[in-house]
Amino acid sequence: MVLLVFILVTFIIDRCKTTVIPKDLYFPRLTTVTKTPYSSVFIFHRSSSRFPSINRVIEFTDSTGPMDIWHSLSDEELVEKAMMVPRVAEDPKKVAFMFLTRRHLPLRLFWEKFFEGHDGLFSIYLHTSPDFNYEPPNSSVFYNRRIPSKFVQWGKPTMIDAERRLLANALLDFSNQRFVLLSESCIPLFNFTTIYNYLMNANGSFLSSFDDPRKIGRGRYNKRMGPTITLKDWRKGSQWFEVNRELAHEIISDKTYYHVFQTHCLPPCYMDEHYLPTLVNKIRPDLTTNTTVTWTDWSGGGSHPMMFMKKDITKTFINEVRYGSNCTYNGVNSKICFVFARKFHPNTLDPLLKMAQKIFGFSP
Ligand SMILES: *[C@@H]1O[C@H](CO)[C@@H](O)[C@H](O)[C@H]1NC(C)=O
Ligand SMILES: *[C@@H]1O[C@H](CO)[C@@H](O)[C@H](O)[C@H]1NC(C)=O
Ligand SMILES: *[C@@H]1O[C@H](CO)[C@@H](O)[C@H](O)[C@H]1NC(C)=O
Ligand SMILES: *[C@@H]1O[C@H](CO)[C@@H](O)[C@H](O)[C@H]1NC(C)=O
Ligand SMILES: *[C@@H]1O[C@H](CO)[C@@H](O)[C@H](O)[C@H]1NC(C)=O
C-alpha cells in the first residue's frame, strides 16, 4: 500500500514537472551553487533526474568580453544567491560599472576609450528596458553585458528593483569590490587609473545621505512609516551612488525598510531619492561619506538638473567640474570630489571624443 502511494505520488510529481519543463528546458531554474577553482568564476547549475543531460551551466566571471551573464533567476532567487557570496571580495581588484539605462548608451564610444587597456580591473552591467535587445559589436566592452531586466518607472519602486538587480548580479563576481551606478547621460571625468585608484582606495562608500529640512525633504516623510522609520531617520540623497562590497551586500539584503517604502513612499515621495539614503543611515551610517562622486548641476532650479550640450564641452568647463569643489577624501582635504558627471546630451559625444586624449591623458 505504502509502495503504491509512493509510486502514485512520484508519478504525479513527474507529471507536474513535465508541465513546467518546456520553459525549464530552455532556461532551467538554477538550484545549486558550485565554486570553481578560479576564484571569480561562480557557477549555477541544475541537474534533473528526468533529463540528466540538462545541466546548463551559467558562469558569472570577471570577463568583460563575450561571457554569458544572462540567467533565468527570479529577483528573489537572484538576491538569495547574491546573499550567499562572500561579503569580502576574495581578490578585490575590480570596479563594477552598473549602467541603468532605457535603451542605447549614447556616449558608449567615449566610455570605450575610458576602459581601453584596463581589462581585468572592471566589469560592466547594463540594465535596459526589457524589450531592448540591441548588442554593440562583439569587440565592444559592452557586448553581452545586459542583465535580465524589467520595466522601470522613474521614481517608483521598480527603479529600486532595477538597482538591486544590478547590485545582486555584480555581487556574484567575487572580485568586484566597488559598485558604481551610472545613467546613460553620465561621463567619467578622469582617466581609468585615476578613478580606479580614487574608488578602490577610499575608506568609505559614496552614497549621498542628508537631512533636508524643507518640504522636498522632511516634507515627504509619511508618519505611517513609523515606528520602523521615524522622521529623525529620514534622509534624502542623489540616486547615483558608489558603494563598496560590504554596503552592496547590506543593501540587497534589506527587506524590512524596502517594504515600508514600497507601501508608504508615494508621490510626492520618490523612492530613488529617499530609500537608500534612509536605509544606509539606519543600518550602516559608518560605511558612507554621505556624499556622491557624481557631479550634477542643480543651479538651474526646478526638479531637473542641467543638461549639457555640444557647445558646453570646453576644457574650462571640464576642469571646473573636475577641480571646482572642496571636500575631504579619507579625512584629507581634496579638490577631487567628483569623478563622474551628468547630464550629458547625446550630441556631446563628438566634442567629448575630440577631448578624450586631454581628459584621459595619453593612454597606452
Ligand atoms: C565578431 O563579429 C564578427 C563580425 O560580425 C564575426 O566575424 C566574428 O566571428 C565575431 N567574433 C566572435 C568571437 O564572436
Ligand atoms: C575615513 O578615514 C578617515 C581618516 O581615518 C576618517 O576621518 C573618516 O571618518 C573615514 N570615513 C569613513 C566613511 O569611514
Ligand atoms: C554620515 O551621516 C551619518 C548620520 O546621518 C553620520 O552618523 C555619519 O557619521 C556621517 N558620516 C560621515 C563620514 O560624515
Ligand atoms: C575651496 O577652497 C579654496 C581654498 O581653501 C577656496 O579658495 C575656494 O574658494 C573653495 N572653493 C569652493 C567651491 O568652495
Ligand atoms: C591619468 O591621469 C592622471 C592625472 O589625473 C595622469 O597623471 C596620468 O598620467 C594619466 N594616466 C594615463 C595612463 O594617461
From TrEMBL:
Keywords assigned: Glycoprotein, Glycosyltransferase, Membrane, Signal, Transferase
Localization per Swiss-Prot or TrEMBL: Membrane
Record's bilayer topology term: Single-pass type II membrane protein
Gene Ontology CC, one term: membrane
Main location: membrane
Signal peptide: 1-18
InterPro entries found in the cross-reference section: BC10-like, Glyco_trans_14
Taxonomy, superkingdom: Eukaryota
MF annotations from Gene Ontology: glycosyltransferase activity
Protein name: Glycosyltransferase
